[in-house]
Fold:
Amino acid sequence: MRDDAFVATDVVLGYGTHVAVDRSSFTIPRPGITAIIGPNGSGKSTILNAIAGLLPPMSGSIEVVNDRNGRNGTSYVLQTTKVASNLPVTVEEVVTMGRYATAGWFSRLTAEDKAQVRTAMDRTGVTALRRRHLHELSGGQRQRAFLAQGLAQDHITLLLDEPLSGIDQPTARAIDQVIHSEAKEGCAVVVSTHDLTEAQVADHVILVGGRVIASGPPNDVITQDNLAMAYGGAVLHPEKGIHVIDDPAHDGDA
Structure:
C-alpha cells in the first residue's frame, strides 16, 4: 500500500522575484520511484530543492508526511561536478560524512554508524576505492561515491538529481539497481531525468514545463498532448507515436 510522502498544494517556487515553477499541485508517493521530467530550465531541480527543504515556497505549501512509523528523513544526492585536485578527501571519508547528519559533526561514530558506511559502499561498488581521493576517480566513480554518502544517511526519501546522466553503463546499471532496491525497501525515490524511457518504468511521473503539467502514472502523464505542452516543437515525429525529445544535456536546470 502506498501513502503520500509529499503533498504540494498551489505551490509557487522561485529564486528572488523569479518564478521557476508557477502555481502547481502534486503528490509524491511512498514507496516507489517518482521521475521528474521536462526540458532544461523547466523547474525539475527547483522542485527537488523545495522537496529537500532547501527552497521555501514563494506561496502555497509542501507538506512532508511521516511514514507509518513516524519517520521523516530525506537524503539528497546532487549531480556531481568536477572535484578540486587539491581536495584531500577519500571515498570513505565522503561516505562517512553521510552519518554526521544523525550523529553530529563532533560525535564519535558508533559501530552501527561504521557498519552503515560499509554497507553503503558495498551497495554502490566503491569499497575497493575507499582509500582513493575523489580527484583520482572517474565521473562515474564519483557519482557512486556521492550516492553511497546519500545511502549512509538515515532516510526514507532519496532525492537524485540526474543520477544516470553522463556516466558509463556499468555505473548506470549499479545506480539503477540501488534505485529499485530503495523503492522495494519502502523508500520514496525521486529522480530528475531527461530520459523518457527511464520515466516510463517509474511508478509515478511529474511532467514540468514552468509548472507541473501532469502528475500521475506514466501512461497518464507521458502522452503526446502533455509532452507537446512541455517541450513544444522538440517532440519529434508525433504522427508515428514516437516520443523523441531534442533536449540538450543537463546544464544548470532550474
Observations:
- The chain has a mean pLDDT of 87.
